[in-house]
Design goal:
heterodimer, A: alpha+beta, four-stranded mixed β-sheet, 47% helix, 14% strand, globular, B: alpha+beta, five-stranded mixed β-sheet, 11 helices, 14 strands, 44% helix, binds flavin-adenine dinucleotide
Chain lengths: 390, 382
């Protein structure tokens, strides 16, 4: 049991730090959060820089075009980029963190060759078309239909809450290919080009005021059968792979960011006098404990993944442990920004103040990628082995 | 980075678990609850197995292991609710004759409380004026010791004790200093570390200051851990308090015991939820029950990561974090476990209440929770 890094890991950190110090000052200013086309361009530009420096797909297996880095190196990467204030993965979230890894794990050689390099080079953006108006938590209730027509599927239905659908090139899409099969057996995982005829994207406004996600209507959209990842009607299994990537590795870098915010809150509280309030001060102390522990849990999970040959670099699929992390983290993040509001006082009602928008966006953390209630079911049934039921 | 159990650590944990299962099983626990008392032969057996001497160097007759291994052993002790002043005796190994081998039972004043005052052979710290409490935990007799008086700046100066430089900005004042290092005979010199917003950090000595009796236990342990007692800086306070100066290792080992209770109560709840049937199905199929159990596991795993990491880093802030999370996991875990057991959970026969009561005792053992919170708050400005 140790937290020491190997000399190779330290060297990796030092070189990454040097590179970040060189490139970050030259970055263009961050675009407005409402301007998705500008955000896409900005995020892809950053991905391109990572690619050119050899940091693209760090945690992906080498035969998928990644660097095959160990989970620890990936953790160092997330830690250092966040500490240096580098751009967040942003529009590349789905492609880099779950669609890409799913294709790397489940796709054919041809599919990997077609889809993975553009994600790594920052040329193509993916979105996730899983949820539907009547199938959210109960994802297997999805009704979007795909009918075989020669070497194409013809897709009809609609998706909802599809993040950054307006600017995506590809969609990881779940469709029902056998309406007569049991719910989980008739589903197929498709890669759908977002410029195909018959797709209508209607942006939805979030409670933060921006168009972060959208409704996607599918009207006789033709998707080549060759775009199917996994077998026909075997999509539920592939979906579980995608979801474990989404919950397993997607949030770890953010803990570092939360720890920075917490330290900034303490400084702000000292400046405006709130630090003298022992109740608030101890609350910030408790949050310090919380985020320290979440960081340690991240390091623990990463070490376990590395030892089991799982994690990401080895091409393995993370286990359900990600649900444990996600559950605690999503609530801690909301508590962090609630504390921020108490540090800010009346200024917490001003959208132009730092942390106020973050407070709003944190509200989605206990819903997106599976609600807390669903995560608790997963922990209880899949980790603790309690019986299924309702 | 290899932040996971090594094979040797797993073997050690399994060994301790096996020993405790043989010597202190559920039946022994129940017997002890009805007729409490220190089992000296068990104590010696633990000593022979190296429980108290885990961190003592081999040349001194110890096992020569580190804090991570010790934490694993204390987690196991916590799981089975092993009674007795385990932490104090462990910390006394190598310093008090017979402690390492389990022949001498040592207790200590730990944050205003002393456990097993009458049952132990040696008491560390000043227990004068200790008042016996009718202990809520039938397995842990406790005495309350009078609160350590505030140690004001004036008193400190009069006693010739160096104090942090006066700070112009009141917000920068150090409000608490953890005094440390005492021997059984009283205060013989203490190192206290202070961290505060204004950058005052480091150690200063408290030597023979009158009126600072019972200022805590030694910080230097066999494992070579030396450093800070509980310290935190807080705004606007011009007084320097001497807190009880509890050894951070005592805080950490207590957290490890709490972790044991958290893990055990989660297991007990899950076992019960799988087998007890209502409405024609196991109660674990009901989401209300399921979610209680999931919450227990999440709290346990978060606490585990914090406790193990603190054992590796021995940083005061990591130890304070471990303490807060382990207390929460143990106390809430035991409560939720009781709830999952329904009426049976409210009976003397079920072991659940013993976990809850012990968790309460441990949560008070090393001073107030607010001291850990203050330390972590001050750490944010460090
Ligand atoms: C910001 C954001 C971005 C998103 N991005 C995407 C995306 O890119 N692609 C995508 O496909 N989806 C996306 N989603 C959708 C997200 O996955 C769903 O919102 C989520 O799974 C919940 O489904 P729902 O909204 O239909 O809520 P519902 O399933 O209707 O849930 C409503 C409430 O009922 C509770 N509930 C439901 N079932 C149970 C149960 N069995 N037990 C206990 N409680 C239950 C839920 O916990 C919740 O509190 C996004 C959501 C958000 C908020």
């Amino acid at each position: 049991m140790d937290l020491a890094h190997t000399p190779e890991e330290e060297e990796f950190r030092v070189r990454l730090r040097e590179w970040l110090a060189k490139v970050l000052p030259a970055l263009p200013p961050k675009p407005s959060p409402d301007d998705w086309p500008a955000r896409r361009a900005y995020d892809l530009g950053w991905q391109r820089m990572l690619h050119d420096a050899g940091y693209a797909g760090l945690h992906w297996p080498v035969d998928a075009g990644g660097r095959g880095a160990t989970p620890t190196q990936h953790l160092i990467f997330l830690e250092e980029t966040e500490k240096a204030g580098a751009p967040y993965v942003g529009a590349n979230f789905v492609g880099l963190l779950h669609a890409g890894p799913t294709i790397a794990a489940e796709g054919t050689a041809a599919q990997r060759a077609r889809w993975l390099p553009p994600v790594l080079r920052g040329e193509e953006v993916w979105c996730q078309g899983f949820s539907e108006p009547d199938a959210g938590s109960d994802l297997a209730a999805l009704r979007t239909r795909a009918r075989r027509d020669g070497d194409h599927y013809v897709v009809n239905g609609s998706k909802i809450w599809t993040s950054h659908a307006e600017v995506a090139d590809w969609c990881e899409l779940l469709v029902r290919t056998d309406p007569d099969a049991p719910r989980h057996r008739g589903i197929t995982w498709l890669a759908m080009p977002m410029d195909a005829p018959g797709i209508t994207v209607r942006p939805l406004r979030t409670l933060a005021g921006s168009a972060e996600f959208a409704e996607v209507f599918l009207d006789d959209v033709r998707v080549p059968v060759a775009n199917r990842v996994g077998d026909e009607n075997d999509g539920w299994r592939v979906t579980m792979v995608t979801l474990s990537f989404e919950r397993g590795t997607a949030f770890v870098g953010e803990v570092v960011a939360c720890r920075r915010v917490l330290a900034e809150l303490a400084v702000a509280a000292r400046q405006n006098g709130h630090w003298d309030d022992p109740v608030l001060r101890r609350r910030l102390g408790r949050l310090n404990a919380e985020f320290r522990a979440l960081w340690r849990l991240t390091q623990w999970n990463v070490s376990e993944a590395e030892a089991s040959g799982g994690g990401t670099g080895g091409g393995g699929v993370p286990g359900v442990g990600g649900s444990v992390f996600k559950l605690r983290y999503s609530h801690a993040r909301q508590e962090l920004y609630d504390a921020a509001a108490d540090v800010l006082g009346p200024d917490s009602l001003d959208l132009d103040r730092p942390w106020v928008l973050d407070r709003l966006s944190a509200l989605s953390y206990t819903i997106a990628a599976g609600t807390s209630q669903i995560q608790r079911n997963i922990v209880a049934e899949r980790i603790l082995g309690l019986p299924k039921g309702r | 980075m290899r932040f996971r159990l090594t094979d040797d650590q797993r073997a050690l944990r399994d060994g301790v678990r096996g020993l405790l299962a043989r010597r202190f099983d559920g039946a022994a626990l129940r017997t002890a609850a009805d007729a409490p008392g220190l089992d000296r032969s068990l104590w010696r057996e633990l000593g022979a197995a190296g429980f108290f001497a885990l961190r003592l160097p081999e040349r001194d007759g110890g096992v020569g292991l580190g804090l991570p291994e010790t934490v694993l052993a204390f987690e196991e002790a916590g799981r089975v609710l092993l009674p007795g002043p385990l932490v104090a005796t462990h910390l006394a190994a190598g310093k008090v004759a017979g402690a390492a081998g389990g022949e001498t039972v040592v207790t200590a004043v730990l944050g205003g409380l002393v456990e097993w005052l009458a049952g132990a052979d040696v008491v560390q710290g000043d227990a004068e004026g200790a008042v016996p409490l009718r202990s809520v935990d039938p397995l842990t007799p406790v005495h309350r010791v009078p609160r350590v008086p505030k140690f004001s700046r004036r008193v400190a100066e009069a006693a010739g004790v160096p104090v942090p430089p006066a700070v112009a900005d009141g917000a920068d004042a150090v409000s608490r200093a953890g005094a440390a290092a005492t021997d059984a005979g009283g205060v013989s010199g203490a190192g206290a570390a202070a961290t505060d917003a204004g950058g005052v950090s480091g150690a200063w000595a408290v030597t023979g200051a009158d009126g600072v009796s019972g200022a805590g236990a030694a910080v230097t342990g066999a494992g070579g851990v030396s450093g800070a007692g509980g310290v935190s800086g807080a705004g606007g306070v011009s007084e320097v308090d001497v807190v009880t100066g509890v050894d951070p290792v005592a805080v950490l080992l207590t957290a490890a015991e709490q972790l044991g209770t958290a893990g055990r109560t989660c297991e007990l709840a899950v076992q019960h939820a799988r087998t007890r049937e209502q409405f024609g199905r196991p109660i674990g199929a009901f989401q209300a029950v399921k979610h209680l159990c999931a919450g227990m596991l999440v709290r346990t795993e978060v606490a585990r990561a914090a406790v193990y990491a603190a054992a590796v880093t021995v940083e005061p802030a990591d130890i304070a974090a471990a303490r807060l999370l382990a207390d929460e996991a143990a106390v809430r875990g035991a409560r939720d476990c009781l709830q999952v057991h329904g009426g049976m959970g409210f009976t003397w026969e079920s072991e659940v209440h013993l976990h809850l009561k012990r968790a309460w005792v441990r949560a008070r053992r090393c001073g107030a929770v607010t001291e850990s919170e203050e330390l972590l708050a001050a750490d944010l400005l460090a």
